[in-house]
């Protein structure tokens, strides 16, 4: 029974990854999860310099999920390479580094520094606000997405995954723009912008006012967007958004995802990723499926 999948020439033992920002760099979770069981660990966003993140409160529970406005707090690329990467290299699992920035130059700096490392793939978080363009996210404008993708691709020694924002009118257009500019793969969806108000205090619950909605509530939107994106491009798609069970993961795969990433549910149950790996294997045995790749995009009708 084959559970391995390939993305941009890199083979992963199974299609289950962690979603950036929900698993740190694996250190905390390694007490609960055997990282060797995972297809890949996708790190928290890494910038060229340390980011303090947004003021608190910056996390709120909502129906079917959570809102977060962490602001991509991270210790920066130098600390990541000195502390986190050596830790991840101990394990037999893929390593995907999520890269964030406030200008294209910020991204290029990180991508360049990771060029000669053991990292397998780079996931480029284009939901970051572009400070030079009035804080519009790189991934909300096809022209900006094209520019950042092509410029990163020119210098990157690693294959790149463009992580697409769902906060757009036409996800297929964004997927095609990323592919045309040279992306090796795309991942989606990032969080959906949301808000929560405390009616007793008549104040915003998050200091940032808005935050990213993740968790089971967004899964139907995510499955639909993965289906649309996978039919718009020929490059691999990594699907995410509200995956809590193997059945959820299989929905994304049947919709066209080559791999999947578990996010918010890591906070609810740190064992979720391994349960999804086991559940997919059980499903394949029950249905007599020898190769998981036969399930990719195999939804009927």
What do these coordinates show?
This protein is of the alpha/beta class. The protein has a single domain, classed as Aldolase class I (TIM Barrel, Alpha-Beta Barrel), CATH 3.20.20. 30% of the residues lie in helices and 21% in strands. The strands form 5 sheets. Strands 3-18-17-12-11-8-7-4 form an 8-stranded parallel beta sheet. Strands 5-6-16-13 form a 4-stranded antiparallel beta sheet, with no helix packed on it. The protein is globular, with a radius of gyration of 18 Å. The chain starts with a strand and ends in a 15-residue tail after the last helix.
Q: What's a concise summary of this model?
A:
This protein is α/β, with parallel strands linked by helices and 301 residues long. The chain is 30% helix and 21% strand. The model has no long low-confidence stretch (mean pLDDT 95).
- How many domains make up the 3D coordinates? 1
Work out the oligomeric state of the chains in this entry.
single chain
- Fold-level CATH name: TIM Barrel
What is the CATH superfamily classification?
Aldolase class I
**Can you tell me the CATH class?**
Alpha Beta
Number of H- or I-type helical stretches: 8
State mean pLDDT (0 to 100 scale): 95
Cα separation of the termini = 26 Å
As a percent range, the share of strand residues is 15-25%
């Amino acid at each position: 029974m084959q559970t391995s999948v390939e993305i941009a020439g890199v083979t992963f033992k199974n299609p289950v990854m962690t979603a950036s920002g929900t698993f740190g760099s694996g250190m905390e979770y390694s007490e609960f999860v055997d990282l060797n069981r995972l297809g890949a660990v996708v790190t928290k966003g890494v910038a060229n310099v340390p980011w303090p993140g947004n003021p608190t409160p910056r996390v709120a529970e909502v129906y079917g999920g959570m809102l977060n406005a962490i602001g991509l707090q991270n210790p920066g690329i130098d600390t990541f390479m000195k502390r986190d990467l050596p830790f991840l290299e101990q394990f037999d699992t893929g390593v995907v580094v999520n890269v964030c920035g406030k200008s294209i130059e910020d991204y290029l700096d990180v991508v360049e520094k990771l060029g000669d490392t053991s990292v397998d793939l780079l996931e480029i978080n284009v939901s970051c606000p572009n400070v030079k363009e009035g804080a519009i996210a790189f991934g909300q404008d096809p022209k900006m997405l094209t520019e950042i993708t092509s410029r990163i691709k020119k210098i990157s020694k690693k294959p790149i995954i463009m992580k697409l924002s769902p906060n757009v009118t036409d996800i297929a257009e964004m997927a095609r723009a990323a592919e045309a500019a040279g992306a090796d793969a795309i991942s989606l969806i990032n969080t959906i912008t949301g808000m929560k108000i405390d009616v007793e205090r008549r104040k915003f619950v998050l200091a940032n006012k808005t935050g990213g909605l993740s968790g089971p509530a967004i899964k139907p939107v995510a499955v639909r967007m993965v289906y649309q994106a996978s039919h718009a491009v020929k490059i691999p798609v990594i699907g995410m958004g509200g995956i809590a069970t193997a059945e959820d993961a299989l929905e994304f795969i049947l919709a066209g995802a080559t791999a999947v990433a578990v996010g918010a549910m890591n906070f609810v149950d740190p064992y979720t990723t391994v349960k999804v790996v086991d559940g997919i294997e059980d499903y394949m045995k029950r249905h007599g499926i020898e190769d998981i790749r036969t399930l990719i995009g195999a939804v009927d009708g």
